[in-house]
Amino acid sequence: MLAPRTFATLALFVSSGLGATYSQSDSYQGSGFLQGLSHQAIPCPSNGRVNYIDQGTALAQNLTYASGDHFVIRADHTTALSANGLGRNSVRLQSNKQYKTHVAVFNVRHMYIWPALWEVGADWPNQGEIDIVEGVNDRTPNQATLHTNVDCTMSASRSQTG
After folding, report:
1. Nearest Cα to 104, choosing from 84, 125, 75, 131?
2. Catalytic site residue from 134, 135, 142, 148
3. 29 vs 14: which has the higher pLDDT
4. pLDDT value at residue 89
5. 134 is catalytic
6. Is 119 among the residues known to form the active site?
7. Cα–Cα distances in angstroms (integers) from residue 135 to residues 21, 55, 61, 77, 147, in the given order
8. Which of 44, 55, 63, 77 is deepest in the core (most CB within 10 A)?
9. How far apart are CA 5 and CA 84, in angstroms?
10. What's the pTM?
11. pLDDT of residue 61
12. What are the angstrom distances between the C-alpha of 58 and each of 5, 11, 55, 75?
Protein backbone atom coordinates (compact mmCIF):
# COMPACT_ATOMS: atom_id res chain seq x y z
CA MET A 1 0.00 0.00 0.00
CA LEU A 2 1.28 3.49 -0.83
CA ALA A 3 1.72 5.98 1.95
CA PRO A 4 -0.77 8.92 1.78
CA ARG A 5 2.00 11.36 0.91
CA THR A 6 3.15 9.21 -2.02
CA PHE A 7 -0.42 8.84 -3.27
CA ALA A 8 -0.97 12.61 -3.28
CA THR A 9 2.25 13.13 -5.22
CA LEU A 10 1.28 10.42 -7.72
CA ALA A 11 -2.19 11.91 -8.21
CA LEU A 12 -0.70 15.35 -8.77
CA PHE A 13 1.73 13.91 -11.33
CA VAL A 14 -1.01 12.02 -13.19
CA SER A 15 -3.30 15.03 -13.14
CA SER A 16 -0.71 17.43 -14.50
CA GLY A 17 0.72 14.86 -16.93
CA LEU A 18 -2.58 13.93 -18.55
CA GLY A 19 -4.54 17.17 -18.26
CA ALA A 20 -4.51 20.02 -20.71
CA THR A 21 -5.07 23.72 -20.36
CA TYR A 22 -6.96 25.54 -23.06
CA SER A 23 -7.42 29.24 -23.60
CA GLN A 24 -9.78 31.01 -25.95
CA SER A 25 -8.13 31.77 -29.27
CA ASP A 26 -11.12 32.71 -31.42
CA SER A 27 -14.67 33.90 -30.94
CA TYR A 28 -17.20 34.28 -33.73
CA GLN A 29 -20.38 36.14 -32.85
CA GLY A 30 -22.56 38.65 -34.63
CA SER A 31 -20.84 40.06 -37.70
CA GLY A 32 -17.66 38.18 -36.72
CA PHE A 33 -19.16 35.13 -38.38
CA LEU A 34 -18.72 36.78 -41.75
CA GLN A 35 -15.04 37.33 -40.96
CA GLY A 36 -14.23 33.94 -39.43
CA LEU A 37 -16.25 31.67 -41.69
CA SER A 38 -16.61 31.31 -45.45
CA HIS A 39 -19.72 30.41 -47.41
CA GLN A 40 -19.27 27.28 -49.48
CA ALA A 41 -21.15 27.49 -52.79
CA ILE A 42 -20.52 23.84 -53.64
CA PRO A 43 -22.58 20.86 -54.74
CA CYS A 44 -23.83 18.89 -51.74
CA PRO A 45 -21.05 16.41 -50.84
CA SER A 46 -23.66 13.83 -49.79
CA ASN A 47 -25.72 14.34 -52.98
CA GLY A 48 -28.63 15.91 -51.11
CA ARG A 49 -31.22 18.08 -52.83
CA VAL A 50 -29.86 21.41 -51.64
CA ASN A 51 -28.32 24.41 -53.39
CA TYR A 52 -25.51 25.87 -51.27
CA ILE A 53 -25.13 29.55 -52.13
CA ASP A 54 -22.33 32.11 -51.85
CA GLN A 55 -22.19 34.90 -49.27
CA GLY A 56 -23.52 37.63 -51.57
CA THR A 57 -26.57 35.54 -52.51
CA ALA A 58 -27.14 34.51 -48.88
CA LEU A 59 -27.05 38.14 -47.74
CA ALA A 60 -29.32 39.30 -50.61
CA GLN A 61 -31.88 36.57 -49.83
CA ASN A 62 -31.66 37.26 -46.08
CA LEU A 63 -30.49 33.70 -45.40
CA THR A 64 -27.37 34.95 -43.59
CA TYR A 65 -27.28 38.04 -41.43
CA ALA A 66 -25.80 39.42 -38.24
CA SER A 67 -27.75 41.28 -35.60
CA GLY A 68 -26.14 42.45 -32.37
CA ASP A 69 -24.34 39.53 -30.77
CA HIS A 70 -25.96 36.80 -32.85
CA PHE A 71 -25.74 35.47 -36.35
CA VAL A 72 -28.53 33.86 -38.37
CA ILE A 73 -28.10 31.07 -40.90
CA ARG A 74 -31.17 29.55 -42.51
CA ALA A 75 -32.51 27.81 -45.55
CA ASP A 76 -34.94 29.37 -47.99
CA HIS A 77 -38.48 28.48 -46.95
CA THR A 78 -40.54 30.62 -49.32
CA THR A 79 -39.59 29.51 -52.84
CA ALA A 80 -41.83 26.97 -54.57
CA LEU A 81 -39.46 24.35 -55.95
CA SER A 82 -39.83 22.42 -59.18
CA ALA A 83 -39.51 18.64 -59.03
CA ASN A 84 -36.45 18.76 -61.29
CA GLY A 85 -34.70 21.80 -59.78
CA LEU A 86 -31.53 22.10 -57.75
CA GLY A 87 -33.23 22.08 -54.39
CA ARG A 88 -33.68 24.65 -51.67
CA ASN A 89 -31.14 27.46 -51.30
CA SER A 90 -29.23 26.98 -48.09
CA VAL A 91 -26.05 28.09 -46.36
CA ARG A 92 -23.00 25.95 -45.70
CA LEU A 93 -20.19 27.60 -43.75
CA GLN A 94 -16.61 26.55 -43.15
CA SER A 95 -14.12 27.99 -40.69
CA ASN A 96 -11.30 29.97 -42.28
CA LYS A 97 -8.96 28.44 -39.72
CA GLN A 98 -8.09 24.81 -39.05
CA TYR A 99 -7.62 23.54 -35.51
CA LYS A 100 -5.57 20.50 -34.57
CA THR A 101 -6.25 20.24 -30.83
CA HIS A 102 -9.12 22.27 -29.49
CA VAL A 103 -12.25 22.55 -27.46
CA ALA A 104 -15.21 24.08 -29.29
CA VAL A 105 -18.05 25.82 -27.48
CA PHE A 106 -21.21 26.68 -29.40
CA ASN A 107 -24.04 28.84 -28.11
CA VAL A 108 -26.92 27.99 -30.42
CA ARG A 109 -30.27 29.65 -29.74
CA HIS A 110 -32.47 27.85 -32.26
CA MET A 111 -32.19 25.23 -35.00
CA TYR A 112 -34.84 23.88 -37.32
CA ILE A 113 -35.48 21.91 -40.54
CA TRP A 114 -32.25 19.85 -40.76
CA PRO A 115 -29.71 21.61 -38.59
CA ALA A 116 -26.16 20.34 -38.56
CA LEU A 117 -22.94 21.35 -36.90
CA TRP A 118 -19.91 19.22 -37.59
CA GLU A 119 -16.13 19.12 -37.75
CA VAL A 120 -14.06 17.42 -40.44
CA GLY A 121 -10.40 16.79 -41.17
CA ALA A 122 -8.57 18.68 -43.92
CA ASP A 123 -8.95 15.67 -46.24
CA TRP A 124 -12.66 14.94 -45.86
CA PRO A 125 -14.01 12.28 -45.88
CA ASN A 126 -10.71 10.41 -45.45
CA GLN A 127 -9.89 12.05 -42.12
CA GLY A 128 -13.36 11.51 -40.74
CA GLU A 129 -16.18 13.66 -39.48
CA ILE A 130 -17.65 14.42 -36.08
CA ASP A 131 -21.34 15.34 -36.19
CA ILE A 132 -21.85 17.42 -33.07
CA VAL A 133 -25.45 18.37 -33.86
CA GLU A 134 -27.54 16.79 -36.56
CA GLY A 135 -31.30 16.96 -36.39
CA VAL A 136 -32.27 14.21 -38.79
CA ASN A 137 -35.85 14.34 -40.12
CA ASP A 138 -37.29 16.13 -37.06
CA ARG A 139 -36.16 13.25 -34.82
CA THR A 140 -35.14 13.82 -31.25
CA PRO A 141 -32.80 13.47 -29.57
CA ASN A 142 -29.88 14.94 -31.48
CA GLN A 143 -27.82 12.45 -33.45
CA ALA A 144 -24.13 12.83 -32.57
CA THR A 145 -22.06 10.60 -34.84
CA LEU A 146 -18.45 9.73 -35.64
CA HIS A 147 -17.75 8.91 -39.30
CA THR A 148 -14.48 7.25 -40.24
CA ASN A 149 -12.89 5.62 -43.26
CA VAL A 150 -13.03 1.85 -43.83
CA ASP A 151 -9.55 1.27 -42.36
CA CYS A 152 -10.27 2.99 -39.03
CA THR A 153 -10.29 0.61 -36.08
CA MET A 154 -10.54 0.96 -32.32
CA SER A 155 -9.37 -1.76 -29.96
CA ALA A 156 -11.87 -3.05 -27.44
CA SER A 157 -9.47 -2.27 -24.60
CA ARG A 158 -7.80 1.14 -24.59
CA SER A 159 -6.53 3.79 -22.23
CA GLN A 160 -8.66 6.95 -22.25
CA THR A 161 -7.74 10.27 -20.71
CA GLY A 162 -9.38 13.64 -20.52
Report:
1. 131
2. 134
3. 29
4. 92
5. yes
6. no
7. 31, 24, 24, 17, 16
8. 63
9. 73
10. 0.68
11. 94
12. 62, 53, 5, 9
